Amino acid sequence: xxxxxxxxxxxxxxxxxxxxxxxxxxxxxxxxxxxxxxxxxxxxxxxxxxxxxxxxxxxxxxxxxxxxxxxxxxxxxxxxxxxxxxxxxxxxxxxxxxxxxxxxxxxxxxxxxxxxxxxxxxxxxxxxxxxxxxxxxxxxxxxxxxxxxxxxxxxxxxxxxxxxxxxxxxxxxxxxxxxxxxxxxxxxxxxxxxxxxxxxxxxxxxxxxxxxxxxxxxxxxxxxxxxxxxxxxxxxxxxxxxxxxxxxxxxxxxxxxxxxxxxxxxxxxxxxxxxxxxxxxxxxxxxxxxxxxxxxxxxxxxxxxxxxxxxxxxxxxxxxxxxxxxxxxxxxxxxxxxxxxxxxxxxxxxxxxxxxxxxxxxxxxxxxxxxxxxxxxxxxxxxxxxxxxxxxxxxxxxxxxxxxxxxxxxxxxxxxxxxxxxxxxxxxxxxxxxxx
Amino acid sequence: xxxxxxxxxxxxxxxxxxxxxxxxxxxxxxxxxxxxxxxxxxxxxxxxxxxxxxxxxxxxxxxxxxxxxxxxxxxxxxxxxxxxxxxxxxxxxxxxxxxxxxxxxxxxxxxxxxxxxxxxxxxxxxxxxxxxxxxxxxxxxxxxxxxxxxxxxxxxxxxx
Lengths: 436, 160
What we know:
The structure holds two protein chains of two kinds.
Chain A: H1 26-31, H2 36-42, H3 46-56, H4 68-73, E1 84-89, H5 99-105, H6 107-121, E2 125-130, H7 135-150, E3 166-171, H8 181-188, E4 212-216, H9 217-229, H10 231-237, E5 245-252, E6 258-263, H11 268-275, E7 285-289, E8 298-299, H12 309-314, E9 323-328, H13 333-347, H14 353-373, H15 378-389, H16 396-411, H17 413-417, H18 428-435
Chain B: H1 5-17, H2 27-38, H3 43-53, H4 57-64, E1 78-83, H5 86-90, H6 93-104, E2 117-122, E3 134-136, E4 139-141, H7 146-158
Parallel strand pairs in B: 1-2
Antiparallel strand pairs in B: 1-3, 3-4
Helix pairs in contact in B: 2-3, 3-4, 6-7
């Protein structure tokens, strides 16, 4: 199955090997600049490596977009405790399907990124936490790791550098919340994935209470090219303070769905129409989920925007995980809001009341509303409930549930009003037509 | 309680991989991999995992309800998981689930009397750009239509 329809707009940096035969093999990796960055990093000090990553303006590719150089710099390198690398490969944010591709088609790029991160903090052990449903990815990654070990790119005295590192995969078992970094840490300790108080941050108190670098697959995968070609070159691909490329996962009502590596800061409309081929049937654009279901949605009029972290924050949304979903005029926003809330209510870990009860109440209200049993007073009430959840939950899942809900209620009140007085969903027929 | 030689080898390596004294970390992977062989999380399995990971049975039991992929009752030999989350919702995932439900004669998390099939409406499985997506056990199927779903199920039925 092809992962996209090739587009001239792609800037293939992380995905440059994807089309090669045997792209995942170590030989292919070594023949295409593989591990050059690792040897370079072995000659650099931790400060030099961090500096290069800061210059690159790489920001977390999991969803929060925190500057990676800064985040990794928080690890107390002088701590007597052992240090760990944890890769967040939980990839469960709705609309996101990129990390599986990076592990499937270029696992050694990820391994090299992990090793460079390990060099910064002198970590000797790392784990790739992969969601349980991605069993084929786990097996694939295990094979790549075994190959790296057999050729001396993992284990003791890697390629004669004196650097030791052991890497393992660790399977999840079905839990979106385990993509939250502190919940992931509890899960990898063998417990329920319940988040921890921050601060302390994982950089200081992380895996098994030790200093840890914990980042997303794509974030680690971006590091080799940054060290090999320099941070400035990576930064130049994007916009100021938003460096590099991103793997954008286009989905929904789009002619050419797929995962495309595009420069950070590319215009969203250009992504939809030039890369994605526009909307099937020539339908009108209604809404866009810019970066995963946790983001405030954008109205069609708001889509003339650069897809970088800062530009989207400025208009009240987020670049998030890079999962870009296109919604056309046949979409019922109430039904969409309900489905989103059904997800968060299910995935809520249950630890704190505002999230556990809030997501459940909102799901029930949106379900009742969509079924024609809503009242006009429900509309501001849904908004108020979401606002009361926002910022008051133990972790960001509560915010993630609140943000899209508030955006939908505030931006598409007419969809809500159309369901009042027991009226049937005006979009139900439109959907049947589309499916026929 | 013992598992297949392959799994025993895997578990032995697993227990060695975590930091010293941290065998509790193996609990969830061990439960999931063992479930593939045993069929579901039984009381006996919980005690076995607790013993191997050097934790109490309660410390194992208490995680089972949290993780969606762990189940205390057996599912079908072929567990059909249909995603209806946002990207799949927009491309016919809900209709696909309804179709699967009718085809198999099953509701959510139900198992056919002969134990061959079970059905579950699942959350995002990370195949959004190739929606609608389903999984049968661990195998992904992308851009699924009611027709291709019918064929997948019919082929599995014939294979018995």
